[in-house]
Structures
1.
Amino acid sequence: MSEPVLVRPAADPASAAGRPLPPPRARRRRRVPLRPWLLLAPGLAVIGVLLLYPLGRVVWLSFQDYGLRNVVSGEPNYNGLDNYVALLTDPFLWRVVLPNTIVFAVVAVGGTVVLGTLVALLLRSLGPWWRTVVIGCVLVAWAMPAVTGTYVWIWIFDVDRGLVRQLLQAVGLVGPEGFNWFTERLSFYAIVTLNIVHHGFPFVAVTVLAGLLTIPRELTEAAMLDGANAWQRFWRVTVPTIRPVFAVVTILSTIWDFKVFAQVYLMPGGGGTNPEVFNLGVWSYVRSFAQQSYGLGSAVAVLLTLMLLVITIGYLRAVFRDEELR
Amino acid sequence: MTAVGGRARAGTTAARRGTAWESWVIGAGIVLLVLYCLAPFWWMLVSSLKGPAEIASNRLWPEDPTLVNYRGVFGGQNDFGYAVRNSVVIAVATTASAMVIAVFSGYALARLRFRGRNLVLALVLACSMFPGVAIVTPLYQMFSDWGWIDQYQAMVVPNISFALPLAIFVLTTFFREMPWELEEAARVDGCGPIGAFFRVILPLAVPGVVTTGLLVFFAAWNEYLISSVVSITLASNPVTVALAKFAGDTEFQQPFGSQMAAGVVVTVPLVVLVLLFQRRIVSGLSAGGFR
């Protein structure tokens, strides 16, 4: 039970998927090609009916001026590319929504990966007992549901009675009038970043730790004999050896941070009253469900999906490095 | 001699100072890390135990602990007990169905070799990036047509489809590590392929299935976006939607006391599960990327 290796290296997606895979009787199984597809059928059917078909409908909706009237009547109302023209020529997209989405994702991914890597390095230097204790704490951060965590951060930064306001007022950094963190884009997203990094770094930490534990000790020792200090060892030995692990955690974090929803939507103003803080997901949702402009909302959703698709292709290339896609 | 001895001593002190400095950094790192990890949880717990008179104080523990917030959560218009029940039903149904489907797919992808295997795996993985917001409108329309609005299945079924891609992927990585020679041995001893799977392989796969199941359960428990659209009334609201609907005394004052108390109710089961299954969850997290 006290085995120090907490993560089986084989459980890492990059190394497991990147490895050639010869099951012992692989060739003989090719005679029955029906069986794998029968086994896959339920899974593929669910994914097809509930992910791919609705995605097709969103694309179809995005070519319509689809409002409440159409919801009731069920009649389509095509308007060609109007939604996309309106969307792409809207300064609001370029000035507010895209920067909110992209700059936030870059900062949050950077914070998540850097903190997660530091924590992984810290965990590696600990003995088994301390490692278990600290991982326990890290996982508590991960286990906090997004909705709950968001309300805790809102409460901590509350304008009137929040902990931060009281602390800052006690040291004289904020006057008795207080400070509203939620109206300004920058401070709003600083809180979202704090929330997202808190929720996201545990995944990076345990995954990078799993990668670190696969690095042969001789490699590090050889570098030490050559006189490399800790900084050089990290950049010249650790990073190149487990580059695929870093690729996977970075890309997955990017995908998640692009589609952040509840952590923005549930914040004060994020639900519609303060458009300055919208990201693509929230904008699409508000357009569709608050303003009943389903066509435009769908066009925004398609834009988000396309951006994620590009990142996903990078992800697939990182996971299936050597194996060809047949 | 003295010079050599002095140098040697200086060397050891320097080395000792080096390690002392290092362990000081590690100690400080641990303290900061544990603070960052646990502070929000601690503040939620403490705030939930403070009465209305005390909630605005920044004391790090409740001076006069009270359950008044918890009574507010489970009584009156909030009636959070329903939400907990709904979430348990939805998350358990999601986990059970998703795992059955994912075990079949994972077995096929890890064990059988066929044309298109990697393509299917790539497609499945690609589907895990799906933004919920992209399909929430069509799902709402479909479920309206089917009369599913405000029904459990309107949340269970999308939860399954969101959980499946990563569940299949994680199970596939687990299944690849299984000792498949044992299946061969069972076949030699006269088991059919199905018998060999159920008698030999499935018992060995339990750790991987439990890990994946926990991750699916967590994802279903935390789902907010789809539920916020397809679940209207308290009768079907899961905890996330119910929590977001808590109303304050005035429009601009959030009911932080009851939100924190409900947050504790929602979070504690997950924290207990995480601590009980720490090793499993760590291996599952690094295998597939759940968040």
Note: The CA atoms of residues 170 and 288 of chain B lie 5 Å apart.
2.
Amino acid sequence: MAARKRTPPLVEMTVNGEAVTVDRAPMVRLLDVLREDLHLTGTKEGCGEGECGACTVLLDGEPVCSCLVPLAQARGREVVTIEGVPADHPLKRAFVEEGGAQCGMCTPGMIMAALSLPARPSLDAVRAGLAGNLCRCTGYEAIYRAVQKAASERIGGAE
Amino acid sequence: MGVVGLSVPRVDGPAKVGGMACYVDDLVFPGMLHARTVRTSVPRGRLSGIRLDFDPAGFTVVDWRDIPGRNCTLHLTDDQPCLVQEDIRHVAEPVLLLAHEDRDTLWSACVQLMEERGEPVLDPAAASHDHAHVLISDGDVERGLRASDLVVEGEYRTGAQEHVYIEPNGIVAVPEANGGVTIHGSLQCPYYVHHALVNLLGLPGELVRVVPSENGGGFGGKEDYPSVIAGHAALLALKAKRPVKLVYDRAEDMLATTKRHPSVVRHRTGVMKDGRLVAMVIDVVLDGGAYVTLSPVVLSRACLHAQGAYRCPNVRINGRAAMTNTPPNGAFRGFGAPQTQFAMEVHMDRIAEALAMDPAKLRLRNVLRAGDRTATGQVLSDSTAEIVLREAMKRSGWRRKRVAWKGTNRGIGLALFRHGAGFTGSGEVRLASRCTLTTTERGVRIRVANTEIGQGTCTALSQIVADALDVPMDEVTFSVPDTADVPNSGPTVASRTVMVVGGILERAATAMREQLGTLSPAEHFARHGETNVTREHEPPPGLHWDDQTYRGDAYGTYGWGCDVAEVEYDPVTYAARAVKLTAVQEFGRPVNPVLARGQIEGGSAQGVGWALIEEVVMKDGAMTNAQLTNYAIPTTLDMPRVETVMVENPYPHGPFGAKGLGELPMNGPGPAIVNALRHVGLDLRQLPATPERVMEAARGRA
């Protein structure tokens, strides 16, 4: 029997803790859904080919380039974007204080990647963990300082 | 109180880390169309026809006949058409513009260009036409060469470099009811765009409004090219009578927009056995690409920095910017100075080698000091060249490592350099920048045309105004540099924003303080309403420059720097890796140390990329690696650790002692890294030092 023309199924997922339903084709990029359907424009597009990391979000807690994730893969999963990170999060504060953000275009993705680092990351761990996120402004040194400052604050606050 | 000199957190920081900062691609207007540019595919030739193989319903189509004013993107000159009429001069030259409300439909439209191929000029050395010439002559070089103990010659080459701002170029044009147009976009210089659009659209100035959106990185790449995109978006918007968004993807941005000028610099230097430089003959060739754009001023700065940080009684610098059939090369941090100082600094190490002298000792013998004259006859009122050199040697452990690492696969090299702050020669006088301060109910707002592009404009200028007006920082706001609101304080280029614009603002704030008496700006506003104070640029006293003879004070002042690079060479893979960079830089006084350090670290990173991995591969006049997959910029794993040292030397004519800083750090890493490879025994004279080039050099390894 010939396949009947069907409208694509709605995609349900959790974004920043809220259940959302999206009516878009399954191969649409998660990046476009976030930016255009959900108006979460904090997630940035820098290259569209998974090289720059500006579009990094957390998918079930793992950092991914949302330009490489088709919407269908997000079905039933949990997405966190920069808007889902509290404004007073130590990483956000430290990026401002240490100069980890300059033009700001890589910053949301960089912070999302930094959220996945170990709690007390060594410099080598920071470098390895952020190697998929390009920054053209800072030369990364200020980002290392910000990440390490935030880590020491978080641990200081928790203990 | 006082906030200048403190690391006040950047005022645009919270919006940026929160994802709330609004960049051009984040903008949406009701009824907005998406747009696309159809481009040439041959480097030279004739356009004989255009065929539209799609259903035109719902499309807006623009070609050169739709231009109401003049078909050119006006900048220094008018040679660059906005849209090709017939003559094709480079690959990716814009021909036709399409807009449609649905992006997929837009990109599925098929357009065929009928292009008749001509013979391109791709080698600048073989070019028959030049965009510009520069000649700087001082003393008698022929006599100087004859009197020398030794003459050392060499040729040095650098490649094109792509800016790779993380935000690609983009513009949104909105048609207005009065027949005018408003431009929102990622750009450095709102009044440059305004100037180009008035000419292109044939509109009176008041009907063109340019409102920069948040800028995701510029580095010179958004100095002149946004005028092209804004022109295209405006033509579509005025024809469609709807807002039009024209945002490039990464591949188009890399293929079509400007790059750092490739260079070939030849040196012939006469030197005495004790290391004294007696004569320098320097020939500079820059590859300008197909249109003039900014090449004359890039060439000018390149030539004015070609003698590096050294005094020499007999100098001749001959420069040309050649016309070739590639997309125009343009502004990129350093603006010609990194290219010529790469040549000078690598050449200095070759002179040291020829004299069997330590490269640092050779430099100390010749370094420009206060009271010395440059090749244009400028007598330096101050110079910290020797101080930064000695500090860099000390910090890096230069002497010990230079001896200990000899004959190993580790190397250490240095580069000494300077950078003139602000526009060249009489440029700042011609710009006649104006800045305004306006009282508000909450304090004072800064009205300037300078853009925040990540470097910290809005924070640093607010700090200067706060202190000069003697008010707390939170009473100062920085206005969007909207051409409908701000005076023309000049472009955001040339390391001029803090020093020149900040200087004008300092005077405006001082004048406003006198006017307010003992009142705060808000109190004054409450009693007397809005008060404006405008001040114009005043050059430091005693500066003279002659454009015709290239004699005089090329810049009001210079920043000075010395970089020491430590590298590791892998003889199996031929990879050269930078492991440490000591960057010692003097730029007057930092207005905000965290921001200043960010400029040094970030500029150094771009220098490291240019030195080792960033290679624009051109084939038949087009960039063949126009993707981030195969045009790599440094990641966290490519970057050496950078130790930054800021040497203070307050500049009496800068605000609170500040000089320009942004470009200075770009000048050092290239030559420092190549000189470190020379220490390893690898004779490289070209950037980038990719494994392929290192392999070539390894064949002759000493």
Note: The two ends of chain B are 59 Å apart (CA to CA).
